[in-house]
C-alpha cells in the first residue's frame, strides 16, 4: 500500500484530521483530537503505527512476524507497527486502520462521542 492510498482512506473516516506534530517525517491522523495512526514518511517500505487490542496485537505479530511488529516508540502492548512492503493483504491493512479508529472512538469522552455523532 502506498502513502496516498493510506492517507485517503484515513481521511475518508469521520472527523479525521492530519498533521505533522512530531516533525516533517511523521504524518499523524487523529479523530476528535486523539491519535489513531502515525505514518513514517521517510521509511521505505512505508511503515505505520496503529492502535490495537492487546490480545489481537499478539496474534497479529505471531501471524505476520516480518510485517507486524511491536509499535515503534509507542506502548508496545497497545500499538503495532505495520511494514507495508506488499506482503500484507491491503484488506487487512484497511481493517487494522478501522480497528485503530474504532478503539480510539470507543475511548472518547461522552461529550466528544456526542460531538462526533453530530458531525
TrEMBL record:
Keyword DNA-binding attached: yes
GO molecular function, one term: DNA binding
Keyword Transferase: no
UniProt xrefs under Pfam families: YjbR (PF04237)
Keywords: DNA-binding
Protein's UniProt name: MmcQ/YjbR family DNA-binding protein
InterPro entries the record matches: YjbR, YjbR-like_sf, YjbR/MT2646/Rv2570-like
Amino acid at each position: 500500500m502506498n502513502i496516498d492510498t493510506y492517507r485517503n482512506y484515513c481521511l475518508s473516516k469521520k472527523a479525521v484530521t492530519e498533521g505533522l506534530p512530531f516533525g516533517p517525517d511523521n504524518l499523524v491522523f487523529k479523530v476528535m483530537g486523539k491519535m489513531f495512526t502515525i505514518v513514517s514518511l521517510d521509511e521505505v517500505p512505508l511503515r505505520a503505527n496503529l492502535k490495537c487490542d492487546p490480545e489481537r496485537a499478539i496474534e497479529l505479530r505471531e501471524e505476520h512476524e516480518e510485517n507486524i511488529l511491536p509499535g515503534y516508540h509507542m506502548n508496545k502492548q497497545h500499538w503495532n507497527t505495520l511494514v507495508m512492503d506488499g506482503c500484507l493483504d491491503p484488506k487487512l491493512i484497511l481493517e487494522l486502520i478501522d480497528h485503530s479508529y474504532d478503539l480510539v472512538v470507543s475511548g472518547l469522552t461522552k461529550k466528544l462521542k456526542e460531538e462526533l455523532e453530530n458531525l
